[in-house]
Amino acid sequence: MPGRITSIFEGRPDSATSGPSAFRDRRDAGRQLASLVSGLAGEQPVVLALPRGGVPVAFEVARALDAPLDVLVVRKIGAPGNPELAMGAVAEGNVRVLERETIAALLVSEVELEQATRRAEEELLTRLHRYRAGQPGVPVAERTVLVVDDGIATGATVSAAIQALRDRGAARIVVAVPVAAAPSARRLRRQADEVLCITEPTDLRGVGAWYEDFRQVDDAQVTALLADPAADSPAREADTRGWTRCPVRVPIGPGPGLEADLVVAPHAVGLVIFAHGSGSSRHSSRNRHVAARLNEHGLATLLLDLLTSEEELDRAKVFDIRLLAGRLLEATRWATHEATTAGLPIGYFGASTGAGAALVSAAQSGPAVGAVVSRGGRPDLAEERLHEVRAPTLLIVGGDDRLVLDLNRSAAEHLVCDHELTVVPGATHLFEEPGTLDRVAELAAAWFGERLAPHADA
């Protein structure tokens, strides 16, 4: 279906000569773009950012529309000797889009093209793991999807994104950017259902020319914004003053230690340590989403990688529940002596295989662990130790996650501690359906709040 392009003004920014740019920074551009796309709110769209630069822009758009925010990972295929010039792009889902005219004009050989494409695909896989930790993105099938970037030059990456979304069954694809080169916007109109631009200059002079501040966005910013869009809103800034938010290393012997992210409120009532599942990491958007909700309820959180980066390459270690439980014990001991967390009652939040490790560690920790929550967990992996667990345990399973639900029902029969099995209707294993992960967060916050907070007053 031919698309429609909407543009507020055309021309060239004054910054191309001597005046101010059109946007102060990407967040300012996002707020302006949010006004332009406000009419889409009724379609309940999914907002997908093209990382990294598109994420701060999309953050503002998603917040204004009260829409879910995710990334669609796309990488340009850089030209030999000039990697900033796109010969095409690759996108998640094995999508490849080539700019044949550019390739021919540059006299690029098939060998050079294949080498450049392979580099782009390797970088794409690296970023997919970094941003999603092996987990799928927000479902887009039969939904309106808003694709957001900080600007469009050649349009190659956006073209690849559109193709990837068509393959994933998106019902309607709307491209929204602060600035787009007019020729590129015209080409994208033939692919997308609609293209919304604040400005569409005939002479782009580079996307950065339209911003006063166009500093590079790093991965830490991307993961922070994806973790919980509401957490960074101006309305909550005063509430988080005095909080400790910092990366830490948990010592595990002579090695470099385990990387972790710690968040502690000034009057925290407890500390929840996260044990992620196989193929995931402390950057998991789902765990970070739950952690942000727990923070709102006065709970400190520690998201950590139970393996070093070298160990993650060994698949046997990824599923070594005894090893992972030992690392969780090390983190627990560290937290009891760390100045910012000493004295806080401790709980575990485990996902998938991490839940098995959390239960084994809880069995070994005794009274040191006050509560355990499992999300889509594999408590069956801790079956030999389940009868030793004394910490109150909540097992949360998706109603449509049949196999794991059966495993949890069986495991619950071996628990002698205070425990509950709660089923979230309509949820699958990753709780990617709208509202299901928020329900997990609500259940976890209530469980930890009731069982950890009383100990804080003891």
UniProtKB/TrEMBL annotation:
Dienelactone hydrolase domain: which residues? 270-437
Which SUPFAM superfamilies does this UniProt record tie to the protein?
alpha/beta-Hydrolases, PRTase-like
Q: Write down the InterPro entries for this protein, in alphabetical order.
A: AB_hydrolase_fold (IPR029058), Dienelactn_hydro (IPR002925), PRTase-like (IPR029057), PRTase_dom (IPR000836)
Location of the region described as Disordered in the Swiss-Prot/TrEMBL record: 1-24
Ranges where the Phosphoribosyltransferase domain occurs = 33-203
Cite a single GO MF annotation: hydrolase activity
What Gene3D superfamilies does UniProt report for this protein, alphabetically? 3.40.50.2020, alpha/beta hydrolase, PRTase-like
Protein name (database record): Unannotated protein
Source species, please? freshwater metagenome
Task: Give the classification, highest ranks.
Answer: unclassified sequences, metagenomes, ecological metagenomes
